[in-house]
Amino acid sequence: MDYFVALFLIVIIVRTIWEIVIDLINLRYSTGTNAKIPNILEDKISTEDFEKSKKYLKDTTYFGIVGSLVSLTVDIVFVLKLFPVLEHALSGKWSLPIQALLFFGIYTLIDYLVGLPFSIYSTFVIEEKYGFNTTKPRLFFRDQILNVLLTVLLGIPVLLVLMWLLSYPIWWWQVSLFAIALVVFISFVQPVFIAPLFYKFSKLENEELERKLRALLEKAKVKVPNIYKIDASKRTKKQNAYLTGIGKSRRLVLFDTILTYSDDEILAIVGHELGHHVRRHIPKLILTNSVYITLILYLTNLVYDFIKANNVFGVSQPYTVFSYALMFITSIIFFAEPITNYFSRKMEYEADEYSAKLIGSPQPLISSLKRLVKENLSNPNPAPIYKTWHYTHPSPEERIKRLMELQN
Ligand SMILES: [Zn+2]
What is the architecture of the domain spanning 201-279+341-407? Predict the structure, then answer.
């Protein structure tokens, strides 16, 4: 079955090459001599800001390309060598669940250790250089340790259930149901139990803002028992806000970094988040993700059976065969990313429109978008192919244009 091994390698290599090609197209488009500040942003983005954002894009793009090449190399080493070597070293010595835990444990650990220097470089060199980073090394390592602990704590039971399900002759729908339940479970647990491990949640000190936010929630007829600010400024200067949870645990969360915005701008941003809620974007996302997960696992099951029946790669244990099959299918399904991003961008327009109507004017949202571009050094001129492929949000220029149309 050598041709399948060749096909496997071609798929993961083509995927990486494709990613690098669109990265470079985007870099050339956004930083070339023809690139200029979009008219709409000219009043807020100075030539200096623009030059800085181009440099930031250059640094992050080259850094991303190095990362993609390293991760491709690691994948090839795993596919050709480490997966079979690990299986042979483990099988026969322990019971199947223990083998699987050791296999995925070693796999995840190597992957993590390879990624760690990148994460350190990104935080302490690139983000630092542009003045975004506020994380101290101590906090960074505390976050790392916490992430490892959470992965182990959650990973062990998940792997044990997975191994049990893989013992069925056909398992794609059982594993899909389990994966969907897991996604829903995490989305409940994350805001209430996990996020507070990383951030301190506290009441807004600005009573005036709190009163205005409550009035806005009332107007939108959305019940949000809790409004919090979090100490995001301990890690970054970048700004954000989100609405999460359901029922009594529903919460509106503002990064403390966004509190320098005017009240009207904050209200417009919150209006956007409320738009996602009112237009039922979260249940829609959960539904489409469920279909996506099921499709991936159905195809993974087909490839799993193929690898097993033809003894490709010389492996036979369920955990190894599953790892191969899943890596192959996720690399192929990557080429469907523009479809999901298209729907995501549509939802962002809907949320913007909702905010403008709720507030009664698109102006505060427009001015907050301009500030976000300026202060987060967002690329004002992304290449069209790059937007189609990667952008979950329309570009700020497109969003502002659409908002201005609403006003007329
Ligand atoms: Zn949004």
Answer: 2-Layer Sandwich (3.30)
